[in-house]
Design the sequence.
């Protein structure tokens, strides 16, 4: 039960903030390394030969509008 609650909170936080993803295919994907994986609070990245995928969180912005008189 505790795992389900933790997973639900993590999913709501992740989808509530939003995310942006990129996928690179070809020789440009392996400029830094051929194999790798990382994850932290800012996103996740996986690198395989000729493929690199990244998911990053996006910040939220607020805007204010002036009322017309």
Sequence:
């Amino acid at each position: 039960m505790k795992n389900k609650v933790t997973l639900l909170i993590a999913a709501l936080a992740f989808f509530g903030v939003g995310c942006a993803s990129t996928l690179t295919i070809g020789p440009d994907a392996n400029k830094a390394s051929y194999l790798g994986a990382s994850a932290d609070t800012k996103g996740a990245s996986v690198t395989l030969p000729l493929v690199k995928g990244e998911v990053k969180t996006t910040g939220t912005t607020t805007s204010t509008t002036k009322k017309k008189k």
